[in-house]
Amino acid sequence: MRTEEDLRNAFDHLADSAPDPARILTAPEHTPVRRRRTPLALGVVAATAAVAIAVPTLISHDKQPPVQAAPRPADEAWQDRLSLPLSANLIYDSRAFGHRSQGLILDGGNTRTTCVVNTYAKGVFDARTIPAGSPRVKINSTLGYVAALADPLSPAVKAKVVAWEPAPGTWTTSYCKVKGEVDPAKATEIARLVNTSPQRLPAPYRVGYLPAGLTVTSLSVNPQGDSTSEPPNNFIAAIGSAEDQTSVPQNPDGPVMVSAGGPVQIAYFTGSAAATRLPKDAERISINGRTGYLGSDGRATVLVINGDGFQVRIELGGTVPNERAELIKIANGLELAPSATDTSSWFDATTAIP
């Protein structure tokens, strides 16, 4: 099992590579839900624990018609390029998706195993960071390396990381730590299981409106219910400027993951995580026939929508003028999937997420 110091080091390292204009995607200040799971920050913004909050009975008349999503081309960034079968003693801990890279963390629980796997878009990973003379290793049909690169759990030091090139210019890395020791053999075992062919990424909502100049810069997705004891199917879209999409360093030295979640986000929580804390001084409003709660949480303006087994939480942290009206427009523009637990009913993220 990872120590708290290990996790803190990993999160700091991963967050350093995240889109960060004016620190727009720094760690959120609201209270996270249940326990802090690995923020694939991976910066997954967990829902907050259920807390009884007094809500005024005032009914807002700010009803607006649903905002229709304009047709958009498919965004290939929102595909799953890291899929692998897991053994009984490993679970998906967190997954993150960006326009330049994708990462996941695997956790072995009582086996004290942690593995970090990343894949990079063409031209992002600089193979020149692999030291000359690094041992070669066969990864299926590819000849890769066991190289001394940045340790994702202790980024100030180097560690043995498996790096290979499944397609020209497109690199993937695998790192494992077992019982406190870096284990390149385990990393190699995991690497040989990885499928980097694009797979459909389900999204629980379709985004129809975002304020001018903003877009989704990264995603964080909790694993499915059959592979973890955590609440299934949590889905967080981090929002920033279009420039944020390409702000990840071009040539990362070893495993680096992207941030997803923060004070500017659209989050979808299920299971017990759906009972998150409501905004302070919440005002009840109607959003497409559902009850919404509009208020504040720290420095962020927040709109929460409750549904059958899920909660949507939209936050704007001082990024746009007239946040109240913009939050209502974003909420009215969301098309929600019919089921919170059946991901086959969810949308294809390539066309649902801008």
Automatic annotation (TrEMBL):
TM spans (from-to): 40-59
Alphabetical UniProt keywords: Membrane, Transmembrane, Transmembrane helix
UniProt entry tagged with the keyword Transmembrane: yes
Record has Transmembrane as a keyword: yes
Superkingdom field: Bacteria
Protein name listed in UniProt: DUF4367 domain-containing protein
Organism: Kribbella voronezhensis
The organism's taxonomic lineage, starting at the top: Bacteria, Bacillati, Actinomycetota, Actinomycetes, Propionibacteriales
